Amino acid sequence: MSELVEIRWHGRGGQGTVTAAKVLADACLSGGRYVQAFPEYGPERAGAPLRAYNRVSSKELRLHCPVLKPQVISVVDATLLDAIDVTEGATEDAIFIVNTSKKPEELRAKLKATPKQKVFTVDATTIAIDCIGRALPNSPMLGAVIKATGLVSLEHLLEDVKKSFGKKFSQKIIDGNLEAVRRGYEEVKEG
Amino acid sequence: MPKPVAVTGNEAVANALRQVNPDVCAAYPITPQTDMMQRFASFVSNGQVDTEIILVESEHSAMSACIGAAAAGGRVITATSSQGLALMWEMLFIAAGDSLPIIMPVVNRALSAPLNIHGDHSDAMGARDSGWIQLWSENAQEAYDNTIQAFRIGEHPEIRLPVMINMDGFIISHSIETMEYLEDEVVKSFVGEYQDAYPLLDLKKPKSYGPLILPDLYHEYKRLQHEIMGRVKNVVLNVAEEFEKISGRKYGLFETYRLEDAEVALVILGSAAGTAKDVVDAVRDKGIKAGLLKPRLFRPFPYEEVAQALEHLKAVCVMDRADSFGGYGPVFLEVSSALYQNGKGPALINKIYGLGGRDFLPEHAEAVFNELNEIASGGSIKTIKEYIGVRQ
To answer: Please, what are the domains in chain B?
Structure first.
């Protein structure tokens, strides 16, 4: 990936999207990289559409504004595809990662992705229900995002999830999330 | 060795306060400051600091409690935003007038009405005449570094004044960025033990704070405040020099970016200065000789130094994230005064941007540089003060 990677997350309030962006930033610190993670703050309601952003760069990050031309777009809730234009500003070689049980080919058509753009899908909600018992798709989405982008290794991300979740949650929830990250990483499909 | 961490501005400043371990903290929660004081309160409950927290029912009481504790001889902190700072209004002048070095991070936020919780500079700009020293920060690292240096500046025996450390609400307070902490012990030894020269609680040497002073001496008292403010610049520079030795990071009265050989420049405070630096690089690649000046010490304002840094330019735009309705923007007023006294300087325009959290985008800065370039090439100034980034 290039010197500066800009990521836009699309989710709904309560799905852990902002947490996912924060964990990703922390994991990307390795190798002396500079990181940013920030949500778009609005009226914070469960279920309302929200955006969050990451920047990862080998150079010091000075920009303090939303990501307008994302190279990576992570859609945590596929119902947003009918509500907003998730492709807005996407670079010509953008990578889309969508939480859906549908095949990547179907999503490619729906997103009207160009041949240079990559489309990945992962059934993150089902994985989350299997591993955590709740429809919290953020952990499997993290696994899928790092597989699709190669930003950090799976081992590194798992370490970081352990660290971030370890402060707040029980061992059972941590183990469930680690398994969810791993499955997201393994089950994401490109098409 | 310190290693980089990814934290929010609020977390960074809360940790600076933990490392300093002040005696007393009286604060009232307000967005976007809440999360900083909540973190600090956990440090208190977890026994990581010895600070006594005073529960209060408003910011007016928070500042009143800080004034009492500081007069008693304690090292005292609080933090606030927006309406909270506005509610402290009368007590701000008392803290400064009584020469009490209270340290207060201000997480800058818009003022009501209409109600808005997002970042702009209206709160702190409204308090610029209160007698407080004001430091401004671009990012989490600077907010952290400024907070640590603020103790040394405010508590300096020749100064003894309260200090506000400003950082942009949400944009910095709630965004995660890469920064580095200093070791706890390094910070502790840098700020040292605080010894108040005139503690109220020293019962052997009784003294009085905040007495009635009538026309016979009030004027002289205020003249003294003016004089003390005049000493601040040097102390800020000396503290910065010492801070560089422990951190490797350089601070001054302001920062310049590619200004030396520039023809046009922005003067811009806070987080937007970072975005604008990227644009300076981008427009330089297109042939515009652009530069930037980012004020750090806004009160007292370093008039002579700012004028000297800008005098060689052809056109400058002063960017304000606050408005003085019926007047020019507050930073513009200062830069304008500095250049008038200097006798020579660039053509000057004023843009109001980013109120109530409106995004400041690279395209906004680029449009301003294009306008400055036209003025520098002999074009006339169309409007002195103008809002940018306005939805039509």
So the answer is: 4-247 (3.40.50.970), 254-387 (3.40.50.920)
